[in-house]
Amino acid sequence: MDVFLVALALLWVGGGIAAVLRARPDAAQIAGQAGAVAGSAVGLAAAIGVLVSGRGETLVAFWPMPGGELNLAIDALSAFFLLPVFGLSLLTGLYGRSYLAGRGNAAAAASWFHLNTLTVAMALVIVAANGLLLLLAWEVMALSSFFLVIADDRQASVRHAAWTYLVAAHLGTSFLLVLFVLLGSAAGTGDFSGYIGVLRGNPALSSAIFLLALIGFGSKAGIVPAHVWLPEAHPVAPSHASALMSGAMIKVGIYGIVRILTMMDAPPAWWGWVLIAAGASSGVLGVLFALAQHDLKRLLAYHSVENIGIILLGIGIGVLGLAHGMTTLAVIGFAAGLLHVLNHSIFKGLLFLGAGAVQHAAHTLELEELGGLLKRMKWTGTCFLIGAAAIVGLPPLNGFVSEFLLFYSGFLGIAGASATVAAAGLIAVVAMGLISGLAAACFAKAFGVVFLGTARSHEAEAAHEVAPPMLAAMAVLALLCVAIGAAAPVVVRSLGVVVAQATGLAAPQVRAALAPVAGGLGNATAIFAVLALAAALLWLVRARRLAIAGAARGPVWGCGFQHPTARMQYTASSFAQPLTTQFRLFIGSRERLVPPAGYFPETASYASDTGDPFLRLLFAPGFRWFSRVVAPLHVLQRGHIHVYVLYLAATLVGLLIWGSLWQ
Amino acid sequence: MTMSATGLHWFLSPLCALLLAPLLPGLINRTKALVAGRRGPPLLQPYRDALKSLRRGAVYGAATSPLFRLGPVVNLAALAASLLVLPFAGIGAPVGFAGDLIVLAGLLALGRFATMLAALDTGSSFEGMGASREAHFAALAEPALLLALATLVRVTGAVSLTPIYAAIGIATWAHTLPTLALVALTFVVLELVENSRIPVDDPNTHLELTMIHEVMVLDHSGPDLAFIQYAAALKLWVLGALFVGLVVPLHGGSLWLDGAAALLGMAGLAVGIGMVEAAMARYRLVHVPQFIVGAATLSAVAFIVYLA
């Protein structure tokens, strides 16, 4: 635990110095980066230490707050969720200084303070073993990420996005407040051990807490329809902050759901169904919305919604397995969900950092303005390609491993005796199949339009490779995508201790359930090795043949047209059009088509614009109604400090009277 | 590695595929020509075409990067690797393990993704169009394939291709005729969709605006084109084997008899595809998604029929 506390201290001291030195941006940046990198490295060591040794660590200390003591605990589950937090914080720290360089203002310096505070807050949420501490850290996490989103506050669009995020974050927190008040008043303490005492053997309370946790924690994770803040906040935040928020922060929401599940008895089956329904709808809708986007970071944000859906599908199957007493199913479902947490943090972090590099080099994220970047940014492009192939779930990368586990759990359910579990397995398999097919389409579009073909704008033409620290951060993540894919059997076996913690099953049982699937993955990696060998062989054959027969450069086939221009390339909108048209019922794109007319058409255009239907049809009317209802309360809002102090005093006096009356 | 208990014959299934796959397009084209009253190209023409392309030099578009050259290589390697988990006739796959069907789907997806990216690398609007259509239809075909496989998993209780196909015999058909028939129909549709055959796509068309797969590979030449042609034949084989293994469920125990029956089945499938191509026109592009979703629905119905 000492190592962990040192990590937090390093992070906060680095961030604090950066905030103090904000008048001297260069020094502040160095301090912020040093704190982020050193603190995260130490924190990573602490988390890995717990995972390897298998011995949890706890810290109990007095604090002047009601409801129990200051209670921290790192068990296997916490340590596992600390990996993406500290790992991504380390790499975004490495990346951030070059990314912010040249901005040279106090805001860049201050952003280190918020970035490091965000990491500390996420780590504290994950190790908190006390409800009040968790809520406080949760709030710090929301606020520090809000300040990261609003970094560019001179633009109205940024302020609007940050406002959406702040409201969404606090809507979620309000459910958590109810959750912990409910638990705290039932248990008489804020400590998790007390919660466990009241939750065991109390199915009604457990169900209520489960639903509150799903909504409260789920809104941070980005479950549909509480996902609306993601596509607003991610595009405007600095890219390394997006990477940390999408890679690590939304996983803290998943952590909350899993942690609450561990406090209860074996779950009833309908929880599993709720999770599967939430996962399938988030997954499919997330990728459908992503398809229709043409801002690279907005597209990536919707893919986070999709991947949270995949994670929930896995956990849902796992819960269903626990409910039906099907141990193997439970273990593999949870393993799929948890491994996807780690995998998504790796490839989504990589993709956001790649998007940041594109923005840095070409000064835009609008897909229709980009193109041909692979030739100008070879390393960024290669890393982005690996990330794209990984998120699509293609073998032999890490995304395939967790999707293999998920498909496998679905097929296990289908093969099993229970007809309801088989139906759930079928839903998971079909949803996952649709998601991976649509994700392949989406990333063929994103990678193809940004990195392949020819540049569609002067900015893209003038793009250059980014600085080595940024490349290094991306390269590490790309290598992790490959390494987890190659070492799949080892990775899946070592998940055992985490899965055991999450499911409450005995470790030998979990190991026995994971062994066959790890063996299967061993065979799969052998097949992929054959694939790599075959590809190398074919490449040699090809090179040899071409050395003899010769290779030339020429124009591409343009149906007889000799001089194709960059503007004739297929665009992102046109690539996605068949799919967005087919699924327009769900996506609701607005299309503007000016068809060519007459024998000698002069102008024709097609543009599609996809807002979020949940924002437009659900939240916007809801909030309009709400602000109408609360409008009379404006009477209280006087704009004078002394009036507000009076309100405070009046509330205190009121509470005192109320308290004394009831004693 | 678990060899699937076929002793020394484990290499027979991939060997058959690698050697005989180009016969399938040859048979299809020959049938099509005969039905239309022409004599048609010789059966071995696809071999000659691939060899001819292999010997030729290549021309690369000005905008292309190494990814364009990598596309056909990865596609062919992925399809060749998929033969390792593909059972054929009574001969099991060289490698059979729980979950190998997921690996098969993953390898098909990998090959497709590589082909789409290579197409987009040309910067040609035609190839972009082809990639867009391929992405669209593949996104619908993937759930259909998984639904069909899921139904077989439910029927046989196994989660690996070799045991699944070993478990399906004449008796299984007798018990679960409607279910298996619907799954077989799904496989036929998938064979046509994934291999861009009529009525989804016309491999012989010469109008770029209407093509799907062929338009994606317009700019490939030389050895790259040879790899693409060979990979297309392998893909016909892989998806065909899933169908034939289901409808020719003979496991007499004699390797030669079973193998001969399965090979006859494959030939029959190719002749059937040729007849379909001769008899049908292609659908309008907007109707293709309905065709694929219809196939997926067949398997969903099959699953529900079996569950009920």
**How many extended strands of chain A?**
5
Overall mean confidence score, pLDDT of chain B: 91
Q: In this structure, how is the largest beta sheet of chain B organized? A: none
Order of helices and strands of chain B: HHHEHHHHHHHHHH
Proportion in helices of chain A: over 70%
Strand content of chain A: under 5%
Alpha-carbon distance between the termini of chain B?
38 Å
- Taking Cα atoms only, what radius of gyration of chain B do you get, to the nearest Å? 19 Å
CA radius of gyration of chain A: 26 Å
Helix/sheet category of chain A: mainly alpha
Jot down its keywords.
heterodimer; A: 5 strands; B: mainly alpha; 13 helices; 68% helix; disordered N terminus
What can you tell me about this protein's structure?
The complex is a heterodimer of chains A (663) and B (308). Chain A is 75% helix and 4% strand. The model of chain A has no long low-confidence stretch (mean pLDDT 93). Chain A is mostly helical and 663 residues long. Chain A is built from 26 helices and five strands. In chain A, strands 1-2 form a two-stranded antiparallel sheet. Chain B has helices at residues 12-20, 23-35, 45-55, 66-82, 100-121, 125-156, 161-167, 170-175, 177-194, 213-216, 223-247, 255-279, 288-307, and one strand at 58-61. The model of chain B is unreliable at 1-6 (pLDDT under 50). Chain B has one domain. Chain B has 308 residues and is an all-alpha fold. At the A-B interface, helix 15, helix 16, helix 17, helix 22 and strand 3 of A face strand 1, helix 4, helix 5, helix 6 and helix 11 of B.
Layout: helices, strands, pairs:
The complex is a heterodimer of chains A (663) and B (308).
Chain A (H helix, E strand, L loop, with lengths): L1 H19 L4 H29 L3 E5 L8 E5 L1 H25 L5 H22 L3 H19 L6 H32 L4 H8 L3 H19 L8 H7 L2 H24 L6 H23 L4 H28 L3 H36 L10 H4 L1 H15 L5 H18 L3 H33 L6 H4 L6 H19 L1 H7 L1 H8 L3 H43 L1 E4 L17 H11 L1 H4 L2 E5 L10 E5 L3 H18 L10 H22 L1
Antiparallel strand pairs in A: 1-2, 4-5
Helix pairs in contact in A: 1-2, 1-4, 2-3, 2-4, 3-4, 3-10, 3-13, 3-19, 4-5, 4-10, 5-6, 5-10, 6-7, 6-8, 6-9, 8-10, 9-10, 9-12, 10-12, 10-13, 11-12, 11-17, 12-13, 12-16, 12-17, 13-15, 13-16, 13-19, 13-21, 13-22, 15-17, 15-19, 16-17, 16-19, 20-22, 21-22
Chain B lengths: L11 H9 L2 H13 L9 H11 L2 E4 L4 H17 L17 H22 L3 H32 L4 H7 L2 H6 L1 H18 L18 H4 L6 H25 L7 H25 L8 H20 L1
Helix pairs in contact in B: 2-12, 3-11, 4-5, 4-11, 5-6, 6-9, 6-13, 9-11, 9-13, 11-12
